[in-house]
């Protein structure tokens, strides 16, 4: 692996300094070839890994695989700025995760090795990876990195929207950590704690989104308003669930609203930053504003149909499965059916000593003695 990286660097140096004209295709081709071989080596490297080591390497393979896809597309679009950004982010994530992997596998910060059989350790490996992705993304999408205040007098806060995004990501990560602790670290699972943390996180998320949309207008304001509507409804459902955690209708409503929120967030990214038509939406065009709401309604219908399709399939599958299982049990019952005679005999043996103990008492209190 090290030899591949060194050779890749040598090709870059030769293309930039030794050739009469720089050959970008040669650089990209060598980079792609190196990462193809690197991916194959890493896949074979993890064949005998288990537990924490396997989880660490799987996440690293995921980053290398995504980077390989980006580099392959760059062979046909070498001047595309978005691909450069994705390549830079993935290389930074890979580098930072390699450093973190060294600490996890060989030099744990706590001084104690990670436990391969502990589900909490396996889950926190993935949590740390998500933190790496989040920090690299936030720090590299802003020129000069994300800072809180400037150095002028009086100091002013900077990058308010980016800090709000970072706070939202942190809320969701902490919410997942509470779920992991409740299900795996506490002596008994505390559903009220999970629901309370979920409701509290969405209360804060709603406040952040309301303030996040204050400086918006036109299409952006419409998109955020519809998202705020979904979060508000989800918050009401989660609040009611604190008093009725076992209510099936609330589970269905919560699932549907989370589906709508997730799908609408993806759609919002395409509307605001990557329109499918290639042209930005017009804030002054009433048709564009109306079609934002139309697309939202389509999302609601599609998500509801998806939810009911999954529920219907699961219901009929379980019904058919359990009916076939009962038929199999009924066919096997004559061969395994046990008669109740041993239990009846055991009850008779227990009742006989009780009757024998009660017989002298009845004899003492007979009518002849009373006479």
TrEMBL record:
A Pfam family of this chain: DUF716
InterPro entries noted in UniProt: DUF716
Residue stretches spanning the membrane: 25-44, 56-77, 89-109, 121-138, 192-211, 223-244, 256-273, 293-317
Membrane-protein topology: Multi-pass membrane protein
The keyword Metal-binding belongs to this UniProt entry's keyword annotation: no
Gene Ontology annotations for the cellular component aspect, listed alphabetically: membrane
Coiled coil: none
Keywords: Membrane, Transmembrane, Transmembrane helix
Main location: membrane
Keyword Membrane: yes
Compartment(s): Membrane
Family: Belongs to the TMEM45 family.
Protein name in the entry: Transmembrane epididymal protein 1
């Amino acid at each position: 692996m090290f030899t591949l990286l060194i050779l890749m660097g040598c090709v870059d140096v030769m293309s930039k300094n030794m050739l009469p004209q720089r050959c970008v295709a040669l650089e990209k081709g060598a980079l792609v070839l190196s990462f193809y071989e690197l991916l194959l080596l890493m896949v074979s490297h993890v064949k005998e890994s288990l537990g924490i080591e396997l989880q660490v390497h799987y996440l690293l393979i995921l980053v290398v695989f995504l980077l390989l896809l980006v580099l392959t597309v760059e062979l046909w679009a070498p001047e595309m700025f978005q691909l450069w950004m994705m390549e830079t982010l993935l290389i930074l994530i890979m580098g930072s995760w390699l450093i973190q992997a060294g600490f996890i596998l060989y030099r744990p910060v706590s001084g104690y090795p990670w436990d391969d059989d502990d589900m909490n350790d396996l889950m926190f490996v993935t949590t740390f990876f998500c933190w790496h992705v989040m920090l690299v993304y936030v720090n590299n999408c802003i020129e000069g990195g994300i800072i809180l205040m400037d150095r002028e007098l009086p100091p002013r806060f900077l990058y308010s929207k980016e800090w709000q995004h970072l706070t939202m990501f942190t809320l969701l990560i902490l919410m997942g950590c509470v779920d992991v602790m409740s299900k795996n670290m506490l002596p008994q699972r505390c559903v009220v704690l999970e629901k309370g943390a979920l409701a509290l996180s969405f209360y804060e998320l709603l406040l952040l989104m309301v303030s996040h949309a204050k400086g918006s207008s036109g299409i952006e304001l419409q998109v955020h308003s519809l998202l705020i509507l979904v979060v508000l409804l989800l918050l009401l459902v989660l609040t009611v669930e604190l008093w009725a955690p076992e209510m099936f209708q609330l589970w269905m409503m919560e699932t549907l609203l989370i589906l709508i929120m997730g799908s609408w967030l993806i759609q919002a990214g395409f509307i605001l930053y990557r329109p499918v038509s290639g042209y930005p939406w017009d804030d002054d065009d009433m048709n564009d504003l109306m079609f934002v709401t139309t697309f939202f309604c389509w999302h609601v219908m599609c998500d509801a149909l998806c939810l009911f399709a999954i529920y219907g399939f699961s219901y009929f599958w379980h019904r058919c499965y359990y009916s076939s299982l009962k038929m199999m049990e009924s066919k096997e019952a004559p061969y395994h059916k046990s008669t109740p005679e041993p239990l009846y005999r055991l009850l008779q043996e227990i009742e006989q000593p009780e009757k024998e103990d009660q017989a002298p008492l009845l004899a003492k209190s007979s009518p002849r003695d009373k006479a």
